[in-house]
């Protein structure tokens, strides 16, 4: 990865283009100051997450992440706010070469969880940073393997009924009640949560963010 130029100015904060409380908590854990840069009501953010036929999960998550970063940059320029680096992350779950996005409802969440139960799957989180000058830095990709223990449908349904799986790729959050199903992980815990801290710190240093 390229090294930051020590002659360039430091930026006291980063724009975070994410509504995820988990990503906000993880960024704060690094000591990074941030301001939210969220989609406007007239933006079709969901359209950026549309899958393409035959697209590999890694290609998909990186493409979506970069598209969200470019949309956030356009949003910042249009707003007239002061320049600073922009951070975007996107997470997906994949099993059997299929991409498991966010469930549509509780029933859909149960279907996803039943597919994961007793098996291993992969969690991919892509990171994109656009520096204060508008240059997209080389994106990063965190890969982690998660094994779910076998679980009865009643337990999966009970979990889905809590509402926690809704809005989460793969229909679960590792930091929540889904932990009861997770037998082991191989990779980045923070990456599975949605913001791999090692890669995030490296990219933000490269973008000259002061933390």
Structure description:
With 211 residues, the protein is α/β, with parallel strands linked by helices. The protein has a single domain, classed as Maf protein, CATH 3.90.950. Helices cover 32% and strands 21% of the residues. It has 6 helices and 7 strands, in the order βαβαββαββαβαα. It has helices spanning 21-29, 57-79, 106-116, 153-161, 189-193, 197-206, and strands at 14-16, 34-36, 86-95, 98-100, 120-130, 140-148, 182-186. Strands 1, 2, 3, 4, 5, 6 and 7 form a 7-stranded mixed sheet that branches. It is globular, with a radius of gyration of 18 Å.
What key phrases describe this protein's structure?
single chain; 211 residues; seven-stranded mixed sheet
User: What's the story with the biggest beta sheet?
Assistant: 7 strands, mixed
Total strands: the figure is 7
* CATH fold name: Maf protein
CATH architecture verdict? Alpha-Beta Complex
Span of the ends, CA to CA: 19 Å
Outline the low-pLDDT stretches: none
Calculate Rg over CA atoms. Answer: 18 Å
């Amino acid at each position: 990865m390229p090294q930051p130029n020590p002659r360039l100015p430091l930026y006291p904060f980063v724009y975070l283009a994410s509504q995820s409380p988990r990503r906000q908590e993880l960024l704060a854990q690094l000591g990074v100051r941030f301001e939210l840069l969220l989609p406007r009501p007239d933006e079709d953010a969901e359209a950026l997450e549309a899958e393409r036929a035959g697209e590999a999960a890694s290609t998909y998550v990186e493409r979506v992440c970069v598209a969200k970063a470019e949309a956030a940059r356009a949003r910042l320029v249009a707003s007239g706010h002061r320049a600073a680096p922009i951070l975007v992350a996107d997470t997906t779950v994949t099993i059997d070469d299929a991409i498991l996005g966010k469930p549509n409802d509780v029933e859909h969440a149960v279907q996803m969880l039943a597919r994961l139960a007793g098996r291993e799957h992969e969690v991919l989180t892509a990171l994109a940073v656009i520096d204060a000058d508008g240059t997209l830095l080389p994106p990063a990709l965190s890969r982690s393997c998660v094994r779910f223990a076998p679980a009865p449908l009643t337990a999966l349904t009970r979990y889905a009924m809590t509402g926690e799986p809704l809005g989460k790729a793969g229909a679960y959050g590792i930091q929540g009640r889904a932990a009861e199903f997770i037998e082991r992980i191989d990779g980045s815990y923070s990456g599975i949560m949605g913001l791999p801290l090692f890669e995030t710190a490296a990219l933000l240093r490269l973008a000259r963010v002061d933390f």
